[in-house]
Amino acid sequence: MTGVGCIDNISDEKIVQYLAKKAIKRVTKAAKNESNDSNPFVWKKKIEQEVTHGVPLDTFSVKAEKMKRKERMIEFEKLRKRREERAIEKRKHDEEMELLARERARAEHDQWEQKL
């Protein structure tokens, strides 16, 4: 039963299921770099839903997954640097506040000594 007759029997739903299955397979291949090689986590339902909404299959390729991972790592680095910068700023601010408190205490002590 090869030929044009077979193509007519394929429904849109079957095509979407096939595309979703193919996308899941691609993502699973991309997930092989994870620590849990025997059972990598894949958002199967999410992928199926996105494929049914018409998201192109190229977004689920190994290359696309690597790019997403790289972008996430860059974002994590930015967040880490910003967190370090905030910690440094906080330390400087705390040191300045401590210095001001010492100066106030010294000034109060000097005024107290002058009154005696």
Automatic annotation (TrEMBL):
Protein name as it appears in the record: Cactin
Superkingdom of source: Eukaryota
Translocase among keywords: no
One of the GO BP terms on file: mRNA cis splicing, via spliceosome
UniProt cross-references to PANTHER family, sorted A to Z: POLYGLUTAMINE BINDING PROTEIN 1/MARVEL MEMBRANE-ASSOCIATING DOMAIN CONTAINING 3, SPLICING FACTOR CACTIN
Residue stretches in coiled coil: 67-110
GO CC annotations on file: cytoplasm; spliceosomal complex
Transmembrane regions: none
